[in-house]
Amino acid sequence: MSTEDAVSLIVGLGNPGPRYAGNRHNVGFLVVDELADRVGGKFKSHKSGADVVEGRLSGARSVLIKPRSYMNLSGGPVAGAVKFYKTAPESLVVIHDELDLPYGTIRLKRGGGENGHNGLRSITKSLGTRDYLRVRFGVGRPPGRMDPADYVLKDFSGTERKELAFFVDQCADAVEALVTKGLEQAQNEVH
């Protein structure tokens, strides 16, 4: 992925609009916002149905993507960007919230199931493959019997917010390692 003309598409998953900005489900947006700051770019509307920033992360040509659709419909804009930038799904990195990891834990992997994550399900369906990279940002399990769908649509707690910027920064570092060093080396550094 780090060859001179190769491009990595880095998608942060979330829901558009201020109502959802602080939700656990929007952590992907927070990470790509951090990455956009690092490349000195501002998101611009793109015909794929997403907002994009083009730049270089640690020298690697990258396109940061925030679908303008709701999470459950992320696949259309993501597939549109893959087609527009003429990349293979293997060059796609998707950053998303993960209920099965403790808060702040970051894990990298290629492929696998969607674990009930509707954004991933939509992307997999639109691309026709699960063979893309995932950056999983742990948000923990909901307390008690709270519905997981309600939990991810709630804002981070006050305690979580105290460490959120640190974890978002760590996740952005993991994404940079992934696009510049490849999956195995990035996993060795992050895990």
UniProtKB/TrEMBL annotation:
It comes from the Bacteria. GO terms for molecular function: peptidyl-tRNA hydrolase activity. The active site is at 25 (proton acceptor). Its main location: cytoplasm. It holds the Pfam family Pept_tRNA_hydro. Its EC number is 3.1.1.29. It is found in: Cytoplasm. It catalyses: an N-acyl-L-alpha-aminoacyl-tRNA + H2O = an N-acyl-L-amino acid + a tRNA + H(+). It is an enzyme of class 3 (hydrolase). TRNA binds at residues 20, 70, 72, 118. The record marks 97 as: Stabilizes the basic form of H active site to accept a proton. The keyword RNA-binding applies. The record marks 15 as: Discriminates between blocked and unblocked aminoacyl-tRNA. Keywords: Cytoplasm, Hydrolase, RNA-binding, tRNA-binding. The keyword tRNA-binding applies. Belongs to the PTH family. Monomer. Hydrolyzes ribosome-free peptidyl-tRNAs (with 1 or more amino acids incorporated), which drop off the ribosome during protein synthesis, or as a result of ribosome stalling. This is Peptidyl-tRNA hydrolase.
